[in-house]
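Exercise: predict the fold of this chain.
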Amino acid sequence: MFWWGSRVIKTAVAVTLAVMLAHILKLDQELSAGILAILGMDVTIRRSWRSATARLFASLISLMVAAGIFLIAGFGPWSLGLFVLVCYPLLVRYGLRDGIVTASVIVFHLYANKTVTLSLLVNETLLLIVGLGIATIINMVYVPNAEEELVKFRNEFERQLSELFQLLSFHLRQYQAEVDRPKSDLNQFVDPINEVLEQGLNRAQQLIENTWWKDELGWQQYFQMRLQQMVHVQEMIDLVVTIPQFVPQATLFADVLEQLADDVQREYYVGETAKHLHELELLFRKMALPETRAEFEARAALFELRRELSAFLLVAERSKKRRSSGKPVRAESKQNSSV
């Protein structure tokens, strides 16, 4: 079964309209308007606009350079080689690399006619305007709604992150000294989380590039914040799997991780995890010092785990607004609320 995405449909519409308009204007090489429409189509409004602008200026510059070369050197194959040697570095130098293919199409039209006239130059310019212009307009008219997809990425990320914290909590409670826990047992859950995070970041960037008239940085900031937090999550995993023996304090940390597993999926953050972590720190200060080296190493790892948990929470505190009013959070604004 075939599936036509929005970009394919937009390209089909742009090609059809470009060729029709070129035919109405009685332009020579009217099918080239369709080719130019295909080249001008891009995934976002901003990229489409930048691409169309680069292609238009690159083609106009190339037309002038090629016209001069053809008038001086004639229409032999050497003239095309000379055009490439002169024009391509020029376009790259001025940041018009994306327009090289489009410019080549136009210049080859000029070469095929074996003549340089004002009417021919006007015809090629109009082909550019029609093809690239229609592609840009179609891109701006239809913009896919990214909000629902971003909400799905966010919910899936938070669900998997919550499950990982629950698994860390389980490992702290069920630790047995004689059983080795390979790091891969926990790290295998990290790659799927990072994959969802990367997809969310890419989609958030597309949302930004598809809007000019309002601020759409919230989603990008959310996923960037989560990306920073995953660094600390990885450190937590490394610490949990290297604890040399079970100590009673591990159960207390397991309680905090369970709380965090709930908090990452809350509609708004009220600071429960940070509160429990602070209470745990005060409790640790009142405990007797470790009696054995193994106990010392285990508690040292737990101390480092506390630091990573604090750093994880601090990233959220710096990057997002806390909501404590209890009011429902809109789907598109939840990225500013959970821990």
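Check your answer against the key: The chain has two domains: 6-141, 147-336.
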